[in-house]
Specification:
Radius of gyration: 17 Å
Shape: globular
Number of strands: 10
Largest sheet: 8 strands, parallel, barrel
Low-confidence stretches: none
Order of helices and strands: HHHEEEHEHEHEHEEHEHEHH
Helix content: 25-40%
Strand order of the largest sheet: 1-4-5-6-7-8-9-10
Strand content: 15-25%
Structural class: alpha/beta
Number of helices: 11
Length: 259
């Protein structure tokens, strides 16, 4: 069993537990469920194009940075021009929680991506209830039919959809309703990074779809290379989070690549 399979197995149990404690009706009564969401489509074009991530740890890297608050990091990301904030909400493998989104929602005015492993309708109501604006769908753990159904539900709830792919086979998961296609430079099953593979996949995307380069962007040259190849946005976290002050590192990066 690879790491993705282990995560999904645990996620299904986590969802089962959550459903037993909190109903969809209760989620709909939450503070943020009725709020008007921010659009990542708009901020990608008007700001840096970077979706800056808050991530404490990962299965491949272990602890990255668990000494700094979500609000401090997210506020700095917004101040220095992030188009959006990606926040991990998976607890067991990434050290995240719903509180990481809840703690910043009233303090920042750019879109928040709930980054998690979405495999059940219930999670989309959760995302809306905690103040997310965008959700991630990972093709590697969903069927094309599930992607279509989850996209429709997301839009019904006012959430934009980022579909993540890594292989040519996963191109079939793309549908006309998807807001963005993210191409993960890092293989989720073995964690190897290959930027050229991502560029090759991007060249096979449908015309006029917004493309996001995800993960494995380790330096300014990587960023410039992917930007030159036509990516519309960039999901970056580890590069900033491994620094003692992620906000300052983000500011420095934006300045150096002259966005």
């Amino acid at each position: 069993m690879n790491i993705l399979d282990k995560i999904i197995e645990r996620k299904k149990q986590e969802i089962k537990d959550s459903k037993s404690k909190t109903s969809v009706a209760q989620l709909k009564d939450s503070e943020f469920f009725g709020r008007k969401t921010f659009s990542l489509k708009e901020t990608l074009a008007s700001k840096s194009g970077i979706i800056a991530e808050f991530k404490r740890q990962s299965p491949s890297k272990g602890i990255i940075n668990n000494q700094i608050s979500t609000l401090e990091v997210a506020s700095a990301y917004e101040k220095f021009g992030a188009s959006g904030i990606s926040i991990l909400t998976d607890k067991d493998f990434f050290g995240g929680s719903f509180d990481d989104i809840l703690s910043v929602r009233n303090h920042i005015n750019i879109p928040i991506l709930r980054k998690d492993f979405m495999v059940d309708e219930y999670q989309f109501y959760e995302a809306k209830s905690i103040g997310a604006d965008v959700i991630l769908l990972i093709a590697a753990c969903l069927s094309p039919t599930q992607v279509q159904e989850f996209t429709e539900l997301s839009h019904k709830l006012g959430l934009e959809v980022l579909l993540e792919i890594h292989t040519e086979e996963e191109l079939q998961h793309i549908n006309k309703s998807i807001d963005f296609v993210g191409i993960n430079n890092r293989n989720l099953k073995d964690f190897k990074v290959d930027l050229q593979h991502s560029v090759n996949l991007k060249n096979q995307l449908p015309e006029n779809i917004l493309s996001i380069a995800e993960s494995g962007i380790y330096n300014e040259d990587d960023f410039k290379y992917l930007k030159e190849k036509g990516f519309n946005g960039f999901l970056m976290g580890e590069y900033f989070m491994k620094n003692k002050n992620p906000g300052n590192k983000f500011s420095e990066f934006v300045s150096n690549v002259k966005i």
